[in-house]
Design a protein that fits this description.
Blueprint (H helix, E strand, L loop, with lengths): L19 H5 L6 H8 L1 H9 L10 E4 L7 E4 L2 E2 L1 H14 L3 E6 L5 E5 H17 L7 E5 L4 H13 L2 E4 L6 H11 L3 E5 L2 E3 L2 E3 L1 H9 L7 E5 L12 E3 H4 L12 E2 L3 E6 L9 E5 L1 H14 L9 E3 L6 H13 L4 E4 L10 H9 L3 E4 L1 H10 L2 H4 L8 E4 L6 H11 L6 E3 L34 E4 L11 E6 L9 E2 L3 H9 L8 E9 L5 E6 L4 E3 L2 E3 L1 H9 L4 E11 L3 E10 L7 H15 L7 E4 L13 H8 L14 H9 L7
Parallel strand pairs: 4-17, 6-7, 6-8, 7-14, 8-11, 11-12, 16-17, 16-18, 18-19, 19-20, 29-30
Antiparallel strand pairs: 1-2, 3-13, 4-5, 9-10, 14-15, 15-23, 21-22, 22-24, 24-25, 26-27, 28-29
Helix pairs in contact: 2-3, 4-5, 4-6, 4-11, 5-6, 7-8, 10-11, 13-15, 17-18
This protein binds ligand 6R9.
The site of ligand 6R9 has 22 residues, from α11, β24 and β25.
Amino acid sequence: MSNEALSNLLREDRRFAPPAAFAADANVKADAYAEAEADREAFWAKQASRLSWDTEWSEVLDWSGKPVAKWFVGGKLNIAYNCVDRHVEAGNGDRVAIHFEGEPGDSRAITYAELKDEVSKAANALTELGVRQGDRVAIYMPMIPETAVAMLACARIGAVHSVVFAAFSPDALRARIEDAGAKLLITADGYHRRGGTVNLKANADEAVTGAETIENVLVVKRTGADVAWGAKDVWWHDAVGAASTEHTPEAFDSENPLFILYTSGTTGKPKGILHTTGGYLTQASYTHHAVFDLKPETDVYWCTADVGWVTGHSYIVYGPLSNGATEVMYEGTPDTPHQGRFWEIVQKYKVSLLYTAPTAIRMFAKWGDDIPAKFDLSSLRLLGSVGEPINPEAWIWYRKNIGGDRTPVVDTWWQTETGAIMISPLPGVTEAKPGSAMRPLPGISANVVDKDGAIVENGHGGLLVLDKPWPSMARGIWGDQQRFVDTYWARFAEQGYYFAGDGAKKDDDGDLWLLGRVDDIMLVSGHNISTTEVESALVSYPAVAEAAVVGAKDETTGQRIVAFVILRAGEQEDTELDAALKAHVSKEIGPIAKPKQIQIVAELPKTRSGKIMRRLLKDVAEDRAVGDTTTLADSAVMDLIKAKLPHATED
Ligand code: 6R9
């Protein structure tokens, strides 16, 4: 950032208080903030006590090894026991844990008692295959219940899982296997996607060729497709099928490694973020309870993320299952076989709590309001968002068209590195502002600072930092602790802050607005302008469904704003629209933020987890060859965008 603070441009005056009945019955009330403020460690110790420990901790937090924390020092617990067995012991074995919905329409309900048997069998099978505490297990799996079973089986025996998103290439999988030194790979023959099948096993085979550390490949049969079979391959239904349902969970140290998860890696080699046991589960479990207000007896919860991302780890597997939730797991895409598929699933399972991403919400808005209107969504009582800043207009669309104008919407900010939600409204407490993640949760502390680390006043923007340790914080980068220090802790070493890499502003009330990655912030005539604010202004124009904005080099202003815009279904591109959009942005946030150039496109480049890759659009806007596109979900998108821009080069 330049010397200018991040400009605070967009104003938003709409407010949404929790419905009275919701507030009265909320899991977490306003007093939690003061309680946590009075004694942060006592507060987290109380949340840790929501779990079942074999050995009590002797110290809540040891921060002497900063930036590597130890939480609940000396405590011992088993994560799988906490997520499964204890619910069965409490008499809830018949409760459905997972309603699985396959893309072709097949479905399966798995109760907690059945989950306990499956996890125990898998734990025995893994042990039989030589997996021991501390060994790494790579999991390259579709969205099927066996994926959660495999993760929990690793946790049960103290092995470290590394889940690799199923749409990653064989090379990406091999690099992650090698970095972690994984001994076992768990995969599937394939999965259903967009009406067809993907042969996952072929990718796994290619990855394992040359990955010396892999001793066995455990293969779940999902599609029944013909697969090549090698000497290391073992069918899941043979190994797990034959194993005993008796397995005694061993208690592991609170700091025992639980998983490695590689960040999406927009730059350089992906980082293997390491999470451990007691602190991670404490915060994943508490935040799920607090932010989603789960009532395990009556709610049906659905997180639409893929289990290959941190959202899937914390809010499909560990958070909800530790709380005894009944949840939906869906294999496929939102538009197969039709664009109402998500709403059909909400209707079918009477989903009450839904957690999805802004990219999906903007896509639903683009498809049209009439699609969700065809389904009964009256079971919904809370909506959540994660992954990117949610534009105020997308927030309003979500609440109105999905939430029937009655449900609270919680915008949850966090990262792979934070392990669990950090900044979010409390749905029964907070009067929410559309587009704001509002305040740090009880027990969490964050702030906005300038480039020198000085805290900015309300009404100003800057860099988001986390200034106090939290239970689910990453404990390092696998095999490269120096990179952990350099990436997150070096920038504000003097103040001891964790630097999140995101821009943010504090509004006049001190509520937080996330403004996107710092790398994306534009510098126009000496003003730091966030891409998020300009995008939000564009998305508030009725014809616009989605927008991505970049700063391109400009001789007079330093950078000029170039916008890429997707129109809603049925809207036409013309010269009047171009002028109208520019005038609209000028009116909403001021002439300084008016795009110089607006390009209407059909798609935007996104990572496989749905985040817009502005770096590539910047290449196009600056008329140079487009950089590394390997993390793109759909590499053809860039060709389409370049083809539309008259001056763009072909690389
Ligand atoms: C959970 C997850 C982390 C980055 C983060 C930020 C962006 C996530 C957000 C958000 C604004 C939100 N991000 N949630 N930005 N508002 N509610 O997405 O983890 O994949 O590691 O990404 O995503 O930029 O720094 P991860």
